[in-house]
């Protein structure tokens, strides 16, 4: 039997909204590895795929959570449909009577944005759909989940995004839709901090670095086992990380009795690794956002020495 130290989140109930793949799956699994019960939501099940048409399913995520040492519960939810989210939270309340961690990870925009395209040339329908998936889902989920989370002091809300507040403030991110989608969760984290702090809660924004998600690996034609082969074509991919790295960041936050010190803050997986001492699956601790500022953006040759 694992000790309390090995399972610091035993008895913790988490909802990872958007846990089908990528960062959401990594977060769900690492919360499970720390002993948590994790409700993993998404739209793709073994019987029905979303418009992504990807093979990953919420059932697989839940099984990975359980295999890691927690309890995974898959629930098909479209987080744009308030009734479905309300029913999800009612179920969590009925089955657990509590919610300790809420991770707003719904994204869904990988195939909807066009790189470096001005607003007058970008598909308006795709852009507005991206914003609904990236922002409205977080608002709907918080509307129904936060009342359960604040019922007990100590709740944690994590708004997932791409980029730190400092980095995004000084850089235009791809196009107007993507830029808004990735700045908004940082502001939402500050909003949730304002609303949950009086109830003993903590809210943060969190970004991974260059994520080796299932979609990214497929785009580069590699697997997790041979991912470094992609560096020949995309040299700065050398700083990339698995979804488990940011998952361990969330688990570390959830297990920290002093996590309130972070409330309202914009955090990164690499930055938190330096504080909490966790690593990625390969034992490294890539600090992607420092690498981007100091190596990639200035146009220096790709070299992750000292950054992982």
Automatic annotation (TrEMBL):
It holds the Pfam family adh_short. SUPFAM superfamilies: NAD(P)-binding Rossmann-fold domains (SSF51735). It comes from the Bacteria. This is SDR family oxidoreductase. The lineage of its organism: Bacteria, Bacillati, Actinomycetota, Actinomycetes, Pseudonocardiales.
């Amino acid at each position: 039997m694992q000790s309390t130290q090995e399972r610091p989140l035993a008895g913790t109930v988490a909802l990872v909204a958007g846990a089908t793949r990528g960062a959401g799956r990594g977060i769900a699994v690492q919360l499970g590895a720390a002993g948590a019960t994790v409700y993993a939501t998404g739209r793709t099940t073994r019987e029905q795929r979303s418009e992504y048409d990807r093979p990953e399913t919420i059932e697989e995520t839940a099984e990975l959570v359980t295999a890691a040492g927690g309890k995974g519960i898959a629930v098909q939810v479209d987080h744009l449909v308030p009734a479905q989210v309300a029913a999800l939270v009612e179920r969590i309340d009925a089955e657990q009577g509590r919610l300790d961690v809420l991770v707003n990870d719904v994204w869904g925009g990988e195939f909807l944005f066009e790189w470096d395209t001005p607003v007058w040339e970008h598909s308006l329908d795709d852009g507005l759909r991206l914003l609904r998936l990236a922002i409205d889902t977080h608002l709907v989920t918080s509307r129904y989940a936060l009342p359960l989370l604040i019922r007990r002091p100590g709740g944690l809300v994590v708004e997932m995004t791409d980029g730190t507040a400092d980095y995004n403030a000084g850089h235009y991110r791809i196009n107007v839709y993507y830029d808004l989608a990735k700045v908004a969760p940082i502001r939402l984290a500050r909003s949730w901090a304002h609303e949950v702090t009086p109830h003993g809660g903590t809210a943060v924004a969190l970004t991974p670095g260059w994520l080796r998600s299932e979609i990214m690996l497929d785009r580069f034609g590699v697997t997790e086992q041979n991912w470094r082969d992609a560096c020949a074509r995309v040299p700065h991919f050398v700083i990339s990380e698995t979804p488990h790295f940011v998952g361990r960041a969330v688990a570390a936050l959830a297990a920290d009795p002093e996590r309130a010190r972070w409330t309202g803050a914009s955090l990164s997986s690499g930055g938190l690794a330096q504080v909490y001492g966790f690593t990625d699956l390969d034992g490294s601790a890539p600090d992607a956002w420092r690498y981007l500022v100091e190596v990639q953006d200035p146009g220096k040759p790709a070299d992750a020495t000292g950054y992982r």
